[in-house]
Every structure is written in C-alpha cells, then in structure tokens.
Structures
1.
Amino acid sequence: MRHRIAVVGSGPAGLTFARVLHRHGYPVAVLERDPAPDARPPGGTLDLHEGLGQLALDKAGLLADFQALSRPEGQAMRILDTDGTVLRDWRPRPHDRANPEIDRGQLRDLLLGPLDVRWGRDVTQVVPGTREGALVRFADGRQEAFDLVVGADGAWSRTRPAVSSVTPHYTGVTLVETSLDDVDACHPGLARLIGDGSVAVHGVNRALVAQRNSGGHVKVYAQFRAPLDWHTSLDLADVEAVRARLLGLFDGWAAPVLELLRHGTAFVHRPLHVLPVRHTWTRVFGVTLMGDAAHLMPPLGAGANLAMVEGAELAESIATGPGDLDEAVRTFEEQMWIRAGRWAEITAAGLERLVSPEPAEALALFDQVHPS
Ligand SMILES: Cc1cc2nc3c(=O)[nH]c(=O)nc-3n(C[C@H](O)[C@H](O)[C@H](O)COP(=O)(O)OP(=O)(O)OC[C@H]3O[C@@H](n4cnc5c(N)ncnc54)[C@H](O)[C@@H]3O)c2cc1C
C-alpha cells in the first residue's frame, strides 16, 4: 500500500529523502517555504563523507554525478598561526575521495533533478492525529492530511513542536560570514594563502577560516566567543561598520590574514545554536524529524552528511520494507538517535577546542583528524 507522505523542507535531508523515494517510484510531497530554488544564496561548500553523504547519494543513484562535480582537492587544509606562520599544510593523496567538497547549490540541483517540489508552502504547524496520521497547516490558511509528515525543516523547525518541546540554545560562538569572488584573478595573494581547500587561523577565543568554493568563490568565516547581543551597538547592515568591528576583534593578527576580511562586500551574522546532545522524543504516530530539525549541532562537517544519510535510510526502508510505516519510523529514529548523538558529542567537543582560550587545542584536534 502507498502511504501519503510529506516532507517539510528541501534542504539536504528533505531532498535526499524525496529523491530516494522517487528512485523507487514512491510518491512524496515536498513542502518548501522558499518561493523558488534560487530564492536565497545557497550557502558555502560541503564536504561529503564516504560513509554518510556519499552513501546517501549512492542510494539515490547519484554517486557518479557527485564524483564528476565534486572537488577532492578541496579537502586540502592549511593551519596558520596568528602571525601568519604556516603550522600545517595538509593535502589529500591523489585518489583520496574520503571527503570531497561540493558547492551547496550544486548539491541542491543534483538532488532536485526530476523532483516536483511545492515551492512557497510555508508550514506553520504539524498536528499529530491518531491512526489518520498528521495534519499540516500552512501560513495561507490551507491544511492537508498525510499518513506521515517528516520534519526536515532545519534549525527552527515548525514540525518539531509536534514531537518535542525542546528548542535550540546559543553555543556562545558566533560566525560572521563574508565572500570573495574570482579570488584567483582579483586577490592572487589570498588565493595562494587559501590554496585548493581551506585555511584556518586560530587565536584566543577566535578563529578565521576561509574555504574555496568552485569558480574562484571563497567563503570567509570570522568565528568568536561573544554574548548573543554582542552587536547591539552595531548596524549589521552597515558593511564598513561590521568590517571595522571585525578588524578590531582580530587586531594584531598578520596583515595577509586580515586581508580575508578587507574585501567582502556583505557580512552575514550566524550565531551558532544547537539542540541538546542526544535529543530524543517519545514516539508520535504520523510525525518524525531528521537533519537539523532533529539534532542541530555545531557546523563541523557532519550536519548535512547526517541529514542526507537519514533521508536516504528512511526513504529506502519505507519504499522497500514490508509496508508498516510506524515500524519503519521507529527503527529509523532509534538508528538516527544513536548515530547523531555520537556526532553531537564529537562536534560539541570540537567547537570547544576550535574556538578556545587555548589555540594549541585547535592544532591538536587537527593532528588527531589528519595524522601525518
Ligand atoms: C557555515 C556552515 C557550514 C557548514 N558546513 C558543513 C559541512 O561542510 N558539512 C556538513 O555536513 N554540514 C555542514 N553544515 C551543516 C549543514 O549546513 C546542516 O546540518 C544541513 O544543512 C542540515 O540540512 P537539513 O536539510 O536538515 O536542514 P536545512 O539545510 O536547514 O534545510 C531546511 C529547509 O527547510 C525549509 N523550511 C524551514 N522552515 C520551513 C517551513 N516552516 N515550511 C516549509 N519549509 C521550511 C528551509 O527553507 C530549508 O530549505 C554547515 C553549516 C553552516 C552554518
């Protein structure tokens, strides 16, 4: 029997879920608040791990397309001291495909493929029912019932309250993001500093990270410990005022490193919030969560990977299992909670070490992940 299934959100979790169902000929309604795929900038680059994001793409039949698009050389990572000294310069071996990078926009387009997303569907509430499933309410007043609603609607999920009263809390670490275009032609010095992948500079309670995307685009992240209201006297839309504040925060760092902050034409404020480590809930018939909606964690290379593998696994078990939806969801949730709980612990500890009063901690963490 074909169940009526909806997924809220067309991020990595929702699209992977829908794409794997689609591959098995199983219908699913993808409900997305954005009015169109390109309504907002898609964001930076993602590294997809062999056993997580790449496994999910394999289940979607998209691994070869990913391999053609992704950038294995983007795994390169350079660590600098605040005086500009290169402390580590790690490059992947020629056939290393463990964690290649892909632009988020390229990944979205790859997953979208033939999917018929319902754009502009702003979900305001999901009301779990009984054996009839769950009701989805939209901002325009409409509503629709489904046998299963999967909340893949990210950090501030509107689906989550149907199963859990927990909300994200601030980690104490903020990111301010800026971008550089055509870095090789316009900023060759920075292009050399960043190399093929990423460069990170760690100081006391702050860090600067730059990541190369495709086409010479670079994302720069200023990361620092601060209260959530650190910007009260600052107009975040005033690019020069934000730049001046950041240059003040990183005062004394080597001039070539500070160049990373001098050329961006816009700054995006991203205070880092997380859900409690090992967030779980009591099973609610007809509703589940996946991805950031279920286990928002610090952005240390796991969130999209988990979101995708969860989407692929639940879709596969619905499409190929014996047809008991509730049992498929129960098994899925138990697996998700174990794996995501482990990663939530790793990334929470990682954030403490990467933006730390003791910058040597960041280097020690790097050496654990990339032993020479
Ligand atoms: C700076 C940064 C760098 C990162 N780098 C990496 C990395 O390298 N590797 C990695 O694995 N992870 C990384 N992450 C984490 C990763 O981005 C997230 O974990 C991932 O995007 C989660 O996917 P998702 O599908 O669960 O949610 P999202 O990507 O947040 O997608 C949610 C979707 O739901 C839609 N939506 C929201 N509310 C509603 C609503 N009410 N109605 C309908 N639709 C709605 C949104 O518009 C969106 O399309 C990074 C995060 C940040 C901030």
Note: The radius of gyration is 21 Å.
2.
Amino acid sequence: MQQLITADQVLPGPAGQRIEDGAVLVDGDTITAVGPRAEVEPQADDARHRTAVGGTVLPGLVNAHVHLSWDAGFGMLDRYRAADDAELLLGIAGRAQQALRAGVTTLRDLGDRDGLVLRVRDAIDRGDLVGPRLLGSGPPLTPPRGHCWFFGGEVSGIEEIRDRIRGNAALGADVIKVMASGGEMTPDSPPTWQSQFSPEDLALVVKEAHAAGIPVAAHAHGTEAIAAAATAGVDTIEHCSWQGAENSGSELRDEVAREIAARGIAVCHAYPPDWRTFQRIVVGEERSQAALDRIRWMDEHGIRFVPGTDGGLPTSVFDDYVGALSYYVDAVGWSPARVIDMATSGAARALGLDRVGRLAPGYAADLLVVDGDPLADVTALHQQRLVLARGRAATPETAVG
Ligand SMILES: [Zn+2]
C-alpha cells in the first residue's frame, strides 16, 4: 500500500535540510520519494493521503540505550528477577510499543537475560507485533558478581569471554555489551570508577565481536576503563563519565578524548527523560554541572554523541523520549536542529544502521508527524500526530486526516 504524507515542512535530514510544503511517499515499508509536494504528489498512485496542516514530518527517533526488561518503577530489579520469561516477553513488547507511540522507531537494548529482547525483535520483524526496530545485546559481559551479573553474562578468562560472545552471537545479538567498569544498582559489585576488565580482555572482546561482524558497546564510568575501551576500539562508550580512581571526581584526559574522536567512537551519556528531577534529587547541583562540563569538553574534542535514556531504570520511562532530548537543548545549549540530527541520522550512523534515520528514497519508512516546528521549539516533538514504523502506524489511524 502507498501512503502520501504532506505537511508544511519536511525535515529529511541530515541537519540543515528543510523542504517547505513537502511530501513523503511510502510504499509498504520503504520511502520511495521525498520532496516538494508539487513534485511528489503526481507520483502517488492510489495512495492513502494524510495531510498535516501546520505540521512537520521528520525521521523517527532513535534511543540508543534502554533496558526493556525493566519497568522503570522503583523496585524494578526485584520484579525483573522474580519474573518468568513469559512475563518478561510481554513487558518487553509492551514497553517497546510505548516507546514507539512516543516517536521512537529504533531502540537499542543494552542488557537483558537470554536474549528475550531479540525474540521480541524477531516477532516485530515478522510482523506479528507493531513495534519499533529493536537492536539487542543479550546478556552483557561482566566478571563474576560484577555489574549487572544477574543478566547471566558472567565471564572470567579468555575462554569464557570467547564462549559468551559466541553464545550471544548465536542468540542473534546485534551488539556485544561489555561492562568495562563498575556501575550503580548492583549490590556488592565494583564501584563505578573501577575497571572490571583488563585492557587485554577488552581488546579480546572487540576482536572476537568484530570477527563475528558485531559492534561493541562498552559501559564505562571510570577514566581507566574509558581509556582501555577506546584503545580496544569499541564502537560506542556508554555513560562515559570520566571518574577518577577512588571517587576523586572527574579525571578528564585530553589524549583519551582525542583517541575517542579520532576513532569515531560515539558516546552515549544516557540521561533520563525527567532529567531535571533526576539532577535535583539524585545527582545534585555540583555533579550536574560536572556532567555538563564533561559533555562540552568532549564536544570541543569533536567526539560525537548518541542519545539514550537507560530506559527501564527507576523514573526512566519509555514514553517520554522527547524529555530526554530536551536536556541537550535546555541544559547543554545545542540547537534543536543539532539534537534532532543526533537522535536520527547521527544515531543511525553510530549504531551502524543503513537506510535508517533519514527521509530519502530507499530508506525505511520510519517517520514522525508533529504539530508545529521542532526546529523553533524542540518540545513540538511532543505534539505527535502520527508515527510510522516501517510503514505501519503506531498511533490511531484517525490521528492525521
Ligand atoms: Zn544501561
């Protein structure tokens, strides 16, 4: 089935491109034409027309860091550990659909057990469920009783590292996740600043994963772990909070930042949608400012960013991704155009996705129709009229006439 979507403006991406009185033509799950309405409309042959007067069409959003197995409420870890597979599968599917209805057409899950997210991914890909494009890591690699050991990815030594990567590849993992440093929320595990793997082990992880054609996402808070991950050649660094040893505060190392930029490694800061409350209650003023300083310092070094929320952690809900993006506009001070670019074509590139993140012929029909102009006010992204995921509507069909 063909669908023709017309609107006051189309933002096809990357940043800077804008088509006034534009149109997008979709055939099945793929975009076949994008341009001024007067040029595209004649190509529409018996298409379903949707007109968004006063609206904007842009690519669907990408959230690069979530955990769909977790329900974003307090006590989520206890519920996760008590849930059987059937409960988790339904929860994963439901939360993926929540994200989709909020405009997120691609979600990258960075840690679950037994690759359950990958089974939901396959159900969506088969068309059994409407949902976003899912990428999943399966169980992250972590040392025995290390950060997030309860996902089932504990490894010790070369053989177990190799076996786990092969096992995750066999589950169909799209990315290998390695917990290069400690983290929060895992009792009796190494502190956040502490490295969990040697530089040699991280290099082995990257070598094995890349040999299988799979990129690597490294969770790293500590500066030592960040440096080792960069040298190992991971593809994305999650959190990247530059913590010095023994909680000594930020330890920013220019030579490491230069290496991250030179290798094209993307950094995912992973901040929740309600970042204002999170900063006020959890982080505090001083650490919030330090986080901003780090982002600006990395930006000065030319490091590219990819947005994510760590969705599933308490308060990091799945249905307000636009809230998370507003951090980069309201706190960091970047333009809406830059942030939209980061959350669409930039994120797709960082995640190694071809034909995603832009509106162009041959690209996936993942798109968002909103009221107003998000380039003038990024919160216009909240005013969603229609979300298409590979051509399928995630919102009520009556939303756009
Ligand atoms: Zn995470």
Note: The CA atoms of residues 80 and 87 lie 9 Å apart.
